[in-house]
Amino acid sequence: MTSKVRAVFGMSRKLNRSFTVSLMLFALLALFGSFMVLPLIYTVNNAFKPLDELFIFPPRFWVNNPTMENFADLINLMGNSWVPLSRYIANTLIITLLGTAGHILLASAAAYPLAKYRFPGSKVLFTIVILSLMFSPHVTAIPNYMVMSWLGWINTHASIIVPSLAFSLGLFLMKQFMEQIPDALLEAAKIDGANEYRIFWSIVMPNVKPAWLTLMILQFPALWGTDGGSFIYSENLKTLHYALSQITQGGIARAGVGAAVALLLMIVPIVLFIISQSSVMQTMATSGMKE
Amino acid sequence: MQAETTKAPAAPAINARQASRWSLLKRDLYLSRHYYVLMAPFMLIFFLFTVIPVGLSLGLSFFHFNMLELPRFVGWQNYSRLFLNDDVFLIALKNTLLFAVITGPVSYIACFLFAWIINELSPKIRAVMTLVFYAPSISGNVFFIWLIIFSGDSYGYMNGFLMRLGVILEPILWLANEKYVLAIVILVQLWLSLGTSFLAFIAGLQTIDRSLVEAGTVDGIKNRWQELWYITLPSMRPQLMFGAVMQITASFAVAEISIALAGFPSVNYAAHTVVTHLMDYGTIRFEMGYASAIATVLFAMMLGTNILTQKMLRKIGE
């Protein structure tokens, strides 16, 4: 019996393992794991609860009679609103897709020289990027607003998309990952007559696909969840997240719709992560900071 | 006269050396022109929205500025007001330091501990457990689920649960009570905090050389704790550094969760943080100079703590 358990836990190949301690550690893992996952499972259940189950006392965790009613209500509700749902979806897609794709492209282009060459200023620039990892964007929120208004970008999608293109964590991870590309590969391309842009585009980029997915999984949830912040005021430029948070604030009558909304907002980034997990892990292995 | 004759030939030599250094740099710049072109788009945006704003914020913190009138230089007045005359800021500072001292180290250790246990599992279960711990931090604003759990009426899970157990007789207004609200925000922040660094730790653990562990066994390492201290931790130092930066920065920047759970402003400012204080003055009162001083203090705290922690982490396994 215990040997079977050991096999499941992948322990048979390990050295110096006390079985009792293992069991205790796994119990700890299970305990905190359920703390992490129960609120999410609850969110999923809630989205399928009919109205009478949502308001039952005492509240129930699992759904008894699952229904799609909440999703149907959501579509009806949004269909009747002043700005159609499709507009919010389009806004969110524009912001998320342009912001994520542009970030991957720009961060890779900037990471390639930093990872593979030394040139005047390369060290200083990388140090500034590292330093910027050490403080959060809140620090620059106010001057950012001034820069935006100076550029005339207030109330445009550019105010959300453009700053997100230069996210320093993305550059950092990409640079660390690119350092693994063998120099011989680049030199061979150079001998064959390729210029730097060509090398970047046809040799380096295809080789860092796992890192693309990692940058995507970091950037996507942030943009997917943006409500426009302090930059977007027009209703028809607002995002899906904003529209949905208006619904959840709508009160008791819309509790069912709110639950459906919560599920929709949460499921997309999670599914993306499930798909890209192994690539993300491959990139994260190179994420260390050298001293 | 003689002095002049000895000086005369020396001068062009220095010039020549300066010139050659200058031309060397020029040649270097010319040879690397493609690299600058590749980096230009990213760096332009990065400087425009990160580096320049930091400088602007520093500069503005010495001015009185409300976006309508021209900035007026006031010297250190914003800072003296901040620390001597603003009781709410002191509450915010205390709360932020509490977050930094509690959620920072706890989430950092949790990231490592769970990554370390998960690393022992078979690949399939490992993938599932990674998802379980990472999902909250990417699931967007699902943390409002905690509003239902800590809801003030008897529909709230916590109230319902405690009432059924008979611990309490009447529902507690969890999020409107100074006594509980900060602790709840800390709990939810911990729930959300296993992010990038957690992934980095799992990945880092998998890259540890198996032969190192086997050599360690031969050298007399008896159990997993010794293996952890003498082999695992030192091998992972680069990831540990990265993780520390991520966790520290996040623990100083708590704001959205506080606003979502405790409201803005929270009861008696019980869950007020430096960032919510910054939002208050920057986006509601439009006292930009004062808000910039708050931002500068925050910047200094984040940077200082990070650099200090990096120095400490260098000592691991020594």
Automatic annotation (TrEMBL), chain A:
<feature type="transmembrane region" description="Helical">
    <location>
        <begin position="152"/>
        <end position="173"/>
    </location>
</feature>
<feature type="transmembrane region" description="Helical">
    <location>
        <begin position="211"/>
        <end position="232"/>
    </location>
</feature>
<feature type="transmembrane region" description="Helical">
    <location>
        <begin position="124"/>
        <end position="146"/>
    </location>
</feature>
<feature type="transmembrane region" description="Helical">
    <location>
        <begin position="21"/>
        <end position="42"/>
    </location>
</feature>
<feature type="transmembrane region" description="Helical">
    <location>
        <begin position="88"/>
        <end position="112"/>
    </location>
</feature>
<feature type="transmembrane region" description="Helical">
    <location>
        <begin position="252"/>
        <end position="275"/>
    </location>
</feature>
<dbReference type="GO" id="GO:0055085">
    <property type="term" value="P:transmembrane transport"/>
</dbReference>
<keyword id="KW-0812">Transmembrane</keyword>
<dbReference type="Pfam" id="PF00528">
    <property type="entry name" value="BPD_transp_1"/>
</dbReference>
<comment type="similarity">
    <text>Belongs to the binding-protein-dependent transport system permease family.</text>
</comment>
<dbReference type="InterPro" id="IPR035906">
    <property type="entry name" value="MetI-like_sf"/>
</dbReference>
<dbReference type="GO" id="GO:0005886">
    <property type="term" value="C:plasma membrane"/>
</dbReference>
<dbReference type="InterPro" id="IPR000515">
    <property type="entry name" value="MetI-like"/>
</dbReference>
<feature type="domain" description="ABC transmembrane type-1">
    <location>
        <begin position="89"/>
        <end position="276"/>
    </location>
</feature>
<protein>
    <submittedName>
        <fullName>Carbohydrate ABC transporter membrane protein 2 (CUT1 family)</fullName>
    </submittedName>
</protein>
<keyword id="KW-0472">Membrane</keyword>
<keyword id="KW-1003">Cell membrane</keyword>
<keyword id="KW-1133">Transmembrane helix</keyword>
<keyword id="KW-0813">Transport</keyword>
